[in-house]
Design a protein that fits this description.
10-stranded mixed sheet; Helicase, Ruva Protein, domain 3; alpha+beta; flavoprotein; 8-stranded mixed sheet; 3 domains; G3P_DH_FAD-dep; D-Amino Acid Oxidase, Chain A, domain 2; FAD/NAD-bd_sf; FAD/NAD(P)-binding domain; about 500 residues; DAO_C_sf
């Protein structure tokens, strides 16, 4: 006991929780955040990894969400040009297809003009008989529309928000479960348990923010004790990763006969990412796994377009996550709103509670700003909005400066192979030099665990980014799990088990 009283205590270390914590501490609030697992271990690392307006949301008339998302693309790209970059999407079309050409053209016209696009190139029409994008596709698709969106390393975006919040003074506590939260004398009294050590702690806060994602209703019911909480509609989205299906740097947007869409996206250099599915989910979000039905669906949907079919045996990795959408009563999972909803509770002298429902990667920064408006109204305003012109750690270089940053790193560390230099800049940006330190040769990076994952990178992730297990490194801080064998991953786990936890 005897803890300082925080202005804000945030439950949840996904993109919304970490984004709110970062924005709040940057305005001068004292902030604590608790995440029961690792950062981005739920929904925030299970996305299609796009920074996009959401072309298909136009069909559901979600114009405000699409406009806000479109406006955020270039803001986020400038904030984090190491982990976010532009991507062109090819939307193949044939006569008699799911949507008429005029409707696609109208949607893409709105997409080009709704959101203040400045740097991203506009829509184009492709002759697929001559454009390289037509090469891997069936001859049926002689025409395509091409448009711009963005790509993001989703889990890294989460941990970099957490890192920046901690650097600005927030108390950031991964692997810390909130077991109870009660109002008393105008404050929240919060009890937590460290899931690694079993240590119990007590905290006090003027305001509680529930950003627990799929567990938001569970937190309201179990930790806070309101038994009637049923606000969230859980929708499962699954993805498959296969060996590279095409050499083009562009991604594909495929329309399916059931009116759903999937993407096929160049992934981690040697692979293709295909997804997503949309289906209601009622089990524990912790147990979400791709189903056989979803696997078959994604393989069949992609095979409708590619000359060479996608087969289940081609799959090298799958991942699934549950999206916590606000339950708006939509009849189909794919029609449920992707917009976010912020609900403020607390009458009179009762300590306020802000529940966060829904949201998506692209709008996390604006969601955070809107949350800070609610927080300011509840406990007093501190500071002005600031994140639009900010940089996430490592992102302090020009928006189109990735190649120059790679060249700079290779000039300083001439022993780095080009693929490793590129990966380090993609993950860490200007922080790659901090990771490499005074290394003058490849041997100075220490033990090689597999692929091009060296001891120096693992040490950096433990010391600066709260990594504790091989899974944290291989599937969230990086995607080196695609390149390491089970034996190599186990060796990494054993090595990390002997390391002290350092990040703070």
């Amino acid at each position: 006991m005897g803890r300082n009283i925080h202005d804000i205590f945030v439950i949840g270390g996904g993109i919304n929780g970490c984004g709110i914590a970062r924005d709040a501490v940057g305005r001068g609030y004292s902030v604590a955040l608790a995440e029961m697992n690792d950062f981005a271990s739920g929904t925030s690392s299970g996305a299609t990894k796009l920074i996009h307006g959401g072309l298909r949301y136009l069909e559901h008339y979600e114009f405000r969400l699409v406009r806000e998302s479109l406006m955020e693309r270039e803001i986020l790209w400038a904030m984090a040009p190491h982990i976010i970059w532009p991507l062109r999407f090819v939307l193949p079309y044939h006569k008699g297809g799911i949507r008429p050409a005029w409707l696609i053209r109208l949607g893409l016209f709105l997409y080009d003009h709704l959101g203040g696009r400045k740097l991203l190139p506009p829509t184009a029409v492709l002759d697929m008989r001559h454009d390289p994008a037509g090469k891997p596709l069936k001859a049926l698709f002689s025409k395509a529309f091409e448009y711009s969106d963005g790509w993001v390393d989703d889990a890294r975006m989460v941990v970099l928000n957490a890192r920046d919040a901690a650097d600005k003074g927030a108390l950031i506590m991964p692997r810390t479960k909130v077991v109870s939260a009660r109002r008393e004398n105008g404050l929240w009294h919060i009890e937590t348990t460290d899931t690694l050590t079993g240590r119990n702690d007590s905290h006090q806060a003027r305001m509680l923010v529930n950003a627990a994602g799929p567990w938001v209703d569970h937190v309201i019911r179990s930790a806070i004790g309101q038994n009637e909480a049923h606000h969230v509609r859980l929708v499962q989205g699954s993805h498959i990763v296969v060996k590279k299906k095409f050499d083009d740097v562009r991604a594909y947007f495929f329309q399916n006969p059931d009116n759903r869409i999937i993407f096929a996206i160049p992934y981690e250099g040697d692979f293709t990412l295909i997804g997503t599915t949309d289906r209601d989910y009622t089990a524990d979000p912790r147990d979400v796994r791709i189903s056989e039905e979803e696997t078959v669906y994604l393989c069949n949907a992609a095979s409708e377009y590619f000359k060479e079919p996608v087969r289940p045996e081609d799959i090298v990795w799958t991942y699934s996550a549950v999206r916590p959408l606000y339950d708006d009563g939509a009849s189909k999972a794919q029609e449920a709103t992707r917009d976010y909803v912020l609900k403020l509770e607390g009458e009179g002298d009762a300590a306020p509670l802000l529940n966060i429902f829904g949201g998506k990667l692209t709008t996390y920064r604006r969601l955070s700003e809107h949350a800070l408006e609610k927080i300011g109204a509840a406990i007093g305003v501190k500071g002005a909005p600031w994140t639009a012109k900010s940089h996430l750690p490592g992102g302090d270089f020009p928006v189109r400066g990735y190649e120059a940053q790679v060249d700079k790193l290779r000039r300083r560390y001439s022993f780095l192979a080009d693929p490793l230099a590129r990966r380090l800049v993609r993950r860490y940006g200007t922080k790659a030099e901090l990771l490499l330190g005074n290394a003058s040769g490849i041997d100075d990076l220490g033990r090689l665990f597999g692929g091009d994952l060296y001891e120096a990178e693992v040490t950096y992730l433990v010391e600066h980014e709260w990594a504790r297990h091989a899974e944290d490194v291989l599937w969230r801080r990086t995607k080196d799990g695609l390149r390491l064998s089970k034996e190599q991953a186990q060796s990494l786990e054993e090595y990390m088990a002997a390391m002290p936890a350092m990040a703070g």
